[in-house]
């Protein structure tokens, strides 16, 4: 379809050489659709000159740029709203627990903390050995709890009976702390997942739409510059002939 014949442009109806433009069949789908919107009766065998084709190519470039810009702005707005969203309430665990801390819970924490230390074990072992030595060897004439140390067994049983629920109270507070931490982690993970999805959508837009459009725009720009150069060369040739 590029023979050196005279054809008529579908836009202005003037006669041109076939090399001075393109037939609609040789145009890209987007540009051909733009021409058909203006000229619904146009066929693929119709011809459009380079001067008018330049207008449609520029309009196609503007449309791709505007489409990419709108999509990027839409994704950026979603990402901004997601980052500024207050739907995910993060609880300050230490502040919350300290505000609700009662005297009994404070005592329970201190008892549990001391009962799980080497200091408690050392003091307890020292008291046991001292008790057994004093009563077993009757040191200083003292033997209020003779072997098999029934009073000592009773004291140990009472201490264990009291210490167990106190430690459980402290563990309940630890369970509350773990639950709040888990809720915070869940909210943070949920928000991070939402933001990552938006970022992935933005990357997909860049890789699937914006980058290919950029390459197409560069190709069109090269074609447009070539046509402009050809027209300038023709104008200079006509000027020299005059």
Automatic annotation (TrEMBL):
Transmembrane segments: 118-141, 147-170
Family annotation (InterPro entries): DUF1003
Keywords on record: Membrane, Transmembrane, Transmembrane helix
Keyword Phosphoprotein: no
KW Metal-binding (keyword) present: no
Record protein name field: DUF1003 domain-containing protein
Native source species: Secundilactobacillus angelensis
